[in-house]
């Protein structure tokens, strides 16, 4: 497996480091404490545009030079950022057209960050100029380990420049205006365009907007940011070929700002790497540890099963939560190890030292306001020590037992206005299935429905609204896979046009015909004759004898919908396909029907095990006990965290962890 951060020996450990917020005297303490904690890489220059380029044509690198030199002298590597996510006031004032416009036509002011229009030429040119300057200056700096472009791309803009760029993008996608009119179904409500100049971003309108328009704008906005990312990456590569390049994605939230799978095509492979940020929601509804696993599994999915890097997490509370949610003692240690268990090549945080001022002065950090004598810093040191001991894990990969299909276009399209139910969000449903599987000890990749799925014994498609055709899923099932499809899947094509005869693109494959949707009200449930119940959604659904050649069968029915089905099963080729015409309130009774084999069978819920393996056969079993009670883990080897032997009678204490190099 490729070493995704070859300049760093072993696993990466560190965080965002913003020394420009501190007097020089503090820097020495910073690096001394970093060394004490085992920090080996920090992300610098993330938001320092105003420092390195304080005015038009003015470049000041003394401070960044000093930071980079200090890191090099102390053996700490730099993930050097381009600083382009936060244009300074001078830039916005000089180029007001680079300030973003919201759907209501309001131009946002500077005063926070990410105030840019991705389509404004002045901004596009400025970021490439900055990236080139940095590439030229630091390409061979001894501290440099990797490049970090921008920060958490998500901004979309609705200004006139965006409108022009949108038209160009639409011309490339659709060709002529007739094709655009077809794709967006503009005969509905007399929306037909007769001139490209009439086409605008989906700005606020009088009534429900055109869903095809909304969907294409999402795609366009994601592509525009990807172009921006690539323009900076290419500028750097011209000066510093061969150094890894990344940006911190946000695949881990419900945010779905971009089509991360499309991004992944440009962030995997040669000298690019997938890095993601993850901030859990301590108030649930899913337990924190399962959220961690979801974030990690989604990241590994983007990395196509290979290694990836956790670029940011919180050591304790996140300021933007609007309240303090402290992590309990030991909690962030287990979370951090869990990311590594699920394939991260290290653990990074936002940020190294808590800021004294600014919007995030109450965001936690590796080094809190309380200084080194704090629970958080002690845990940071413990983690640094552990990660050093886990160096040999670097480069090993996880082999998941299942996949959950995640398609960003589906997520976007199913949240367009005018949907038949307001209680069928896609992303939270994927999380719910993921959590139910995680509780059973099943590790899942989050995979795109168009990828080769043959390596997964079971594939879940809980919410796959948008699908052009069933070809890839059919190949998977016929080849021996088990596919589980949730309701309201296969319903529309890529233009958000309804496929005739629901469940549309999946009707033939499932052998099921949905006569009508019967969405449920908020809080309403529906009983099935196998003793289970569903919520949010139900259907009048039947076996489609013609399509399935009588091979589909009803496994359970809704009570009260005579001679219809709620759970269907069909044997097809070498495989099986299941269809659920509702969202089961409790997923376990259904999961019990499947042949799901956990990494380590027989463990109680809350005891997480994930195995990482090297190509040469060396394996590491990460065992994380998130419960209060001791358990035994049936394997043999050495616990790398303690150096002690491990055997099937060894106790893993409550709220603790072991990483067992297996014999
Ligand atoms: C991330 C961001 C960081 C910091 C952090 C706080 O989304 O990249 O700069 O704001 O959130 O949670």
Mean pLDDT: 96
Tally of strands: 29
Q: Helical element count?
A: 18
> What portion of the residues fall into strands of 2 or more residues?
15-25%
Overall, the morphology is globular
The side-by-side strand order for the widest beta sheet comes to: 12-11-13-14-21-20-19
Helix content: 25-40%
User: How would you sum up the major sheet?
Assistant: 7 strands, mixed
Bound molecules: beta-D-galactopyranose
Low-pLDDT parts are none
CATH architecture of one domain: 3-Layer(aba) Sandwich
Radius of gyration computed on alpha carbons: 26 Å
CATH fold call of one domain: Rossmann fold
Q: How would you name the CATH homologous superfamily of one domain?
A: Class I glutamine amidotransferase (GATase) domain
CATH class of one domain: Alpha Beta
Strand pairing plus helix content: what structural class?
Answer: alpha/beta
Taking the alpha carbons of the first and last residues, their distance comes to 21 Å
What does this structure look like?
Strand 7 (275-277), helix 10 and strand 8 form a beta-alpha-beta unit. Helix 8 packs parallel to helix 9 (260-267) and helix 11 (331-341) runs parallel beside helix 12 (375-389). The two termini are 21 Å apart. This protein has 18 helices and 29 strands. 30% of the residues lie in helices and 18% in strands. The protein is globular. The model has no long low-confidence stretch (mean pLDDT 96). The strands form seven sheets. The chain has a seven-stranded mixed sheet with strand order 12-11-13-14-21-20-19, sandwiched between helices. It has a six-stranded antiparallel sheet with strand order 10-23-24-29-26-27, with helices on one face. By secondary structure, it is an alpha/beta fold. Among the domains are: 1-39 and 245-393, Glycosidases (TIM Barrel); 402-591, Rossmann fold, CATH 3.40.50.880; 607-662, Sandwich (Immunoglobulin-like), CATH 2.60.40.1180. The chain binds beta-D-galactopyranose. Beta-D-galactopyranose is lined by residues 151-152, 248, 277, 279, 312, 314, 318, 320, 350, 360, 363. Beta-D-galactopyranose (GAL) binds at residues 151-152, 248, 277, 279, 312, 314, 318, 320, 350, 360, 363.
